[in-house]
């Protein structure tokens, strides 16, 4: 039985889920082959007996593991002879802090800006549900949330300052240091979510964040180029 | 010869340097006794043959190590039988990212808000230099930089969201996980800098960040209570 990662898919075979991206990178980091099987929102309740609401779900030769953090822990536990995702509990905790930075500082800006683009890239049968649930959460229409979003680009770019300083003043090639690690997969996966759907380029071409993003996309045989994305920079 | 950390001191024996705080915590984390010797700005050029512009400077029985990162690396290298500050290069790199988050997201807000308070707590002989150099950097008077700073509290609190999410949604006791680590010392040391001088309480009393800050202050025999600070919360 092959190793399968159920991977959220939109139209045009775009793969927007930041959680799926980090799990694909986790598998590649450990040198484990897998199929990233396209999964629509509506497919999820039918997977592995139902009861799951989100992907990624890993099916590792019959062992079913949902949730990106559980998948990472499962991989380190099950394949201890492969390169570790976490050298110890502190690295894991600091990777969670990296995730909290993205969801605390970037997501509040980007989610309203991109919600309409996400809708427009969802499979047709998913759009009504997506619009209704997100408009309720945002408290306004997707169109209203996106209006004037160009004026919010400066704030998005400023919110990336911590990553930018890590790459410039601190001179690191990756968030994890000289070599890429799970923190990079979390952060790049988050930008891959944006790049999968954004019809507005978010960054400036000469931004060191862009060079880092392209470095991560190149890793593991160009994994980050295995699905279509828009240009992240103008 | 005793182990001495040259530690920036202001009036009232306040110890504002975030870099000194993390080095004091690093020494305590490794269980190494030391004297945190009070040092004025003007004392620094006279230390250890001159040539140093900043503290901390560690004098470990005659081995002189300047710079907080060099001190951390020196301690892990010299005392490998003691608890490590960095379990490996990835943890060190992620601690640098934590620092970049503070300096990229918090410092731009807090430095103008606190510059006048810092001035007022500097030793009298240091104030003229401090005012001139900081007003040049800020492009305005210290008083102008601080004006209306109450209105900027909301942005300061929002900028702490990544730490707050780590403690709440992610359920970690410390940034480094179940146990405190160097990332906590960096972040708490940064807030100790603020608390050493701020005459305006910055956070709300029930903020989980405050509970974490007080937890870190309690560590290592109450190290974070060994110098006077203002209340960080109203």
From TrEMBL, chains A, B:
SUPFAM superfamilies: GST C-terminal domain-like, Thioredoxin-like. The lineage of its organism: Bacteria, Pseudomonadati, Myxococcota, Polyangia, Nannocystales. Pfam families: GST_C_7, GST_N_3. PROSITE patterns: GST_NTER (PS50404). Residues 7-83 form the GST N-terminal domain. This is Glutathione S-transferase family protein. It comes from the Bacteria.
